[in-house]
Amino acid sequence: MAGMITTQGExxxxxxxERFKIRYPTLLSxxxxxxxxxxNISRALTSxxxxxxxxxxxxxxxxxxxxxxRASVVMKxxxxxxxxxxxxxxxxxxxxEKEKGSQADQEFMESQFPAIRDRVAExxxxxxxxxxxxxxxxxxxxxxxxxxxxxxxxxSLFTPDxxxxxxxxxxxxxxxxxxxxxxxxxxxACSLLTTLWxxxxxxxxxxxxxxxxxxxxxxxxxxxxxxxxLGLFRDPxxxxxxxxxxxxxxxxxxxxxxxxxxxxxxxxELLECDGRHVVRVLSNERVxxxxxxxxxxxxxxxxxxxxxxxxxxxxxxxILTPF
Length: 323
Prior knowledge:
alpha/beta
């Protein structure tokens, strides 16, 4: 059902929380110092509550956490941190203007899908099959594989090469609207990053009284502009476009299956390293380096950098995770 989390989705969130407990055994041990927030969408709330069940073993701690996350929701048109794509009026106006022009994904579909449509129609005996139908069939295939692990349903109608084209077409559309293909996305996560910076600064000022873990549960449309604002997973100019060769498609950096999968997450860790505080960023539990920053960055104070990964992070002080 639209807007609801699947059983597999709940399982994914519980398992993610269990991995967090292993990675941050001390940091997440005091439930009273954890902060929770979700968007005003049932799927986000249910995801957060599933994560809480995987993280908190005490019934009273779990009840308090669930109460907090349910009380945290903000109206969709006012949630600048977690739903900027619905709360920023200038962004919505820009989207309307964008939709008046030609769309890269539409151009790609018009060039690639007719041949796929004709082959599938002939093989399956489908009459009056359109390119739009093919696109819908690709979408069902993707959900069947992601949720059920099933490649014998709609996916069996397509060749491996056609599935690659479908994957690229989906990425091209997402890139065009939620990634680097739409310039406002490079600033859309500024409110969330400002909140993050404020939280980090507050912890440094009052480490004994501020939350040690801040968890925010949202959407792919939240994470994608956050990654874009940070400059992550960016292809060299001109970026994605409908005329890319097969080799360019396969070697592209921007892949939503890797950057914003189901149960996707971004973690900001505040660590103390050699007498200074640094922030390490993880995308889907893997360390990433923010463009322009590096492990040898000499800038003092609160520095965006990368540090060698370890199974546990005893020096971590605070994490913030939008899902």
